[in-house]
Automatic annotation (TrEMBL):
Gene Ontology terms for molecular function: phosphorelay sensor kinase activity
SUPFAM superfamilies, alphabetized: CheY-like
Positions where 4-aspartylphosphate occurs in the chain: D738
Name assigned to this protein: histidine kinase
PANTHER family (UniProt xref): RESPONSE REGULATORY DOMAIN-CONTAINING PROTEIN (PTHR44591:SF3), STRESS RESPONSE REGULATOR PROTEIN 1 (PTHR44591)
Annotated TM spans: 12-37
Length: 804
């Protein structure tokens, strides 16, 4: 429903206009003529001083906004993404910019690592400001005001981030001493302030930025206004004081009530005259609006032409507004449809578009693969395939289900594309033809557009990594607290049995998360020399093997704890067990047993890959009497032998299990040097450690473990928080940092810390297999970890620190 417009009489409107004009004339006369004979009607001296102080604060805030804009313009002048400018050329540009902006005495371009790239003083080029407080605050905040590190000749400086906060460099501008002088001149000129009034600008720590405090020792009238917000800089905390020397004369006079009464009478008379004149002028218009003097030929009623025109104008205006709203709604709905199509493409791997069933033109396409919307859909395919597309379109319109066809792209003739056409009916019964397209393997991939399938796999991988990280954090909390419970309290036999079961369940959960990563990533099937705990891997994998490969066959695990880690990836060990289980199952045996012991094979040569090995023995139960003999061994044993040999081990098949005897085989895998976890007594003086973990529960649990091991712990909840702690105190022996933190990942924080504080040993904590190759330079610990594992990696960090 449209609201009726407010109707005002033309007489009243004219009276109001004349009254305003009369009041403006009277006020001008008072302001211009009265001051010549009598002092002005200003406020008291205290109010004048306060108004001047507030005006000065507003002028400084406006000038600071201009300074931020100047800094960004200077950054664009000095920017060199292509690396074409030499340091001398960049310094010359900086000096030329300073000559054009005399409000600044110096400027410096700072790299992300704190190196000075360009400055007016060439001696500063190449120096580092990475450890200065203003540089760290500037990278974190983006825009700051610098007063503590400013030069003595400069009242203050401004630092502006060149790009994304915390990643790109800074540009710092130092203001000239005349910076505030120009602001004061503008305020005095705008407010007509007397010379007896002065200003003083100071920082919260009483540093004077502008003005002379000695001249105001006897001042009795002053007003101070704090700087609260100045553009993006926030609150610099400055205090602006306006001070005036008392003259002994009153700056204000009592108002002349007689003059005020004359003015009100003049305004009232003008309003009355305006109302009368307006009524006389609008009388003919009212008669025309009412149709007086004009009648219709068939009726004696007056004809209101103007009223009809006004009604028609309102109707047309309403139609225009309705049409505009409908167009805006259609545009927003169209944008939402295209966004949904783009989301569908990224998830499913199929590109989708709608085709006009009659003309074959594209109606809606999120990627515009065949050209802009409205272009022929067949234009994106080679000419020889277009008749096939026409027949497929006709078949899809006539059929109830989808129609598939393989075509070649016009821009990439070697590339084949599967096109699925499907005709659907909307709510009104009209036919709508949709086309789904996806690229088929083969053809030249060098010039093809980005594939959809890798994007979908990347999304699935990120989601899986996030789930594994959260689950391993939970397991870390469980394992660390169970160990603390066992360490601090004397448990009974039943309690120890329950704690042991909970610990075994947590380790099995960790093995499940690792298998989920292997399933999604699929990038760790090769032979790698990763150190793997044999007992933990088999304990977590054998229940999965029994449920999915061995069926009802009993499984016997005789892998003792305390074996050294083997130099073989967890994925290869699982493949070994899987192939052996398949061979024993296909041979028809009644059981599966595995055992391991530390030792060296008899046939190992002097050039063996390792000085220590772990011997793994795999056997089966006897075959039931009614079970038939298998035809052969198949490729499973050959696969096992190849995996063991490529891992640097030795394989020996004693009995293949094809005959009447049970299966028996053994293999040796190279072992890593044995490291014994030595837990110090509780509350013993140890290392000073900075723990960086975004999850509060995990952070509290690990901090409790470190404190129980005798180490002093300082906690940080993010990368930025850790840098703030290090800026205040960098005397840490080691830093334990979680890899999967928001904003600043653990590896990014580690790279920053090792550059600024190389004496700190860094330990990256992450689920197994989630760290990239660039993390090999740091110590690592897999989540979830035991308290003994944490102490072992800390001992290694101390040894490396002493060696350095």
């Amino acid at each position: 429903m449209t609201a009726k417009p407010l109707q005002i009489s033309l007489g009243l409107l004219n009276a109001l206009q004349v009254a305003i004009a009369a009041a403006a004339g009277f006020a001008a006369a008072v302001l211009i003529v009265a001051p010549a004979a009598q002092p002005g009607t200003a406020s008291s001296q205290q109010e004048m001083v306060g108004s001047a102080s507030r005006a000065y604060v507003a002028a400084i805030a406006a000038r600071l906004r201009q300074t931020v804009g100047d800094a960004r313009n200077a950054a664009l002048t000095l920017r060199d993404d292509e690396g074409l400018l030499s340091p001398d050329q960049r310094a010359a540009r900086l000096r030329a910019w300073l000559d054009l902006n005399p409000a600044y005495r110096d400027a410096a371009l700072i790299a992300p690592d704190g190196t000075v790239l360009a400055a007016q003083d060439e001696r500063r080029i190449g120096s580092s400001v990475a450890r200065q407080t203003w540089f760290l605050r500037g990278r974190a905040a983006g825009v700051i005001v610098v007063t503590d590190g400013a030069d003595s000749d400069s009242p203050f400086g401004a630092a502006v981030a060149l790009g994304e906060r915390g990643q790109d460099g800074l540009l710092r501008l130092d203001a000239n001493p005349s910076y505030f002088t120009k602001v004061e001149e503008d305020v005095r000129r705008a407010a007509a302030l007397p010379e007896t009034l002065g200003f003083l600008v100071a920082t919260p720590d009483s540093r004077v930025l502008a003005g002379t405090p000695d001249a105001f020792r006897t001042i009795s009238v002053s007003a101070t206004t704090p700087m609260r917000v100045a553009a993006e800089i926030g609150s610099p905390g400055w205090l602006v004081t306006a001070q005036a020397v008392p003259s002994g004369e009153s700056l204000a006079a009592a108002p002349d009530w007689r003059m005020l009464g004359i003015g009100l009478a003049l305004v009232a008379c003008a309003a009355a005259l305006g109302f009368v004149a307006g009524e006389r002028l609008t009388r003919p218009l009212r008669r025309l609006l009412k149709g007086e003097g004009e009648t219709d030929a068939e009726s004696t009623a007056p004809h209101m032409w103007i009223g009809e025109f006004a009604a028609l104008s309102d109707v047309f205006a309403g139609h225009r507004r309705s049409a505009g709203l409908m167009m805006a709604g259609a545009g927003s709905e169209f944008a939402r449809l295209k966004a949904r199509l783009a989301t569908f493409e990224s998830i499913s791997g199929w590109a989708c578009c709608e085709i006009d069933p009659d003309t074959g033109r594209t109606l809606l396409d999120s990627r515009s693969a065949g050209g802009p919307d409205g272009a022929p859909f067949a234009a994106c395919f080679v000419a020889d395939d277009r008749p096939v597309l026409d027949r497929a379109r006709s078949a899809a319109l006539a059929a109830e289900g989808p129609t598939d066809v393989v075509l070649h792209l016009h821009d990439w003739p070697e590339q084949q594309v599967q096109v699925r056409l499907h005709c659907l009916a909307d709510a009104s019964g009209d036919r709508r033809l949709f086309a789904l397209m996806r690229k088929l393997p083969g053809g030249e991939a060098a010039t093809l557009p980005p594939q959809v399938e890798p994007r979908r796999n990347l999304v699935l991988r990120r989601v899986t990594d996030g789930i594994v990280h959260e689950f391993n954090d939970v397991l870390t909390v469980v394992l660390t607290n169970l160990t603390l419970l066992t360490r601090r309290h004397a448990l009974g036999d039943d309690q120890e049995r329950l704690v042991g079961r909970a610990t075994a369940g947590a380790r099995r959960g960790a093995a499940l998360t690792r298998r989920m990563l292997h399933l999604v990533r699929g990038d760790e099937t090769g032979i790698t020399l990763a150190e793997t705990d044999l007992a933990t891997t088999f304990e977590g994998y054998l229940p999965f093997l029994a449920a999915n490969a061995l069926g009802e066959m009993p499984v016997l695990n005789r892998i003792p704890a305390g074996l050294p880690p083997v130099l073989c990836s967890e994925r290869v060990l699982e493949l070994l067990l899987l192939n052996l289980a398949f061979h024993i199952r296909d041979a028809g045996h009644a059981g599966f047993a595995i055992a391991a012991v530390e030792g060296i094979p008899d046939d190992a040569s002097t050039a063996a890959a390792s000085s220590a090995y772990v011997r793994v023995l795999v056997s089966s139960g006897r075959r039931p009497a009614a079970a038939p003999l298998p035809a052969g061994t198949g490729p499973t044993l050959a696969t096992v032998a190849a995996l063991v040999t490529e891992s640097g081990g030795f394989w020996r098949l004693v009995r293949d299990g094809i005959g009447a005897e049970p299966f028996l085989a053994e293999f040796w895998l190279p072992a890593a040097p044995r490291i014994t976890a030595k837990l110090p007594p509780a509350r013993l003086a140890g290392l000073k450690i900075l723990l960086v973990e975004s999850d509060g529960l995990v952070r509290a649990s690990v901090a409790e473990v470190l404190a129980d091991l005798g180490h002093a712990v300082v906690q940080a909840a993010s990368g930025a928080h850790a840098l703030e702690v290090l800026a205040r105190d960098a005397a840490f022996d080691a830093m334990i940092v979680d890899q999967s933190m928001p904003v600043m990942a653990g590896l990014q924080l580690a790279a920053t810390v090792v550059e600024r504080y190389p004496e700190i040993r860094i330990i990256l904590a992450s689920p197994h297999g989630q760290l990239p190759r660039s993390a090999d330079a740091f110590l690592r610990i897999d989540k979830p970890f035991r308290n003994e594992d944490l102490q072992v990696v800390l001992d290694i960090a101390v040894k490396r620190a002493r060696a350095a």
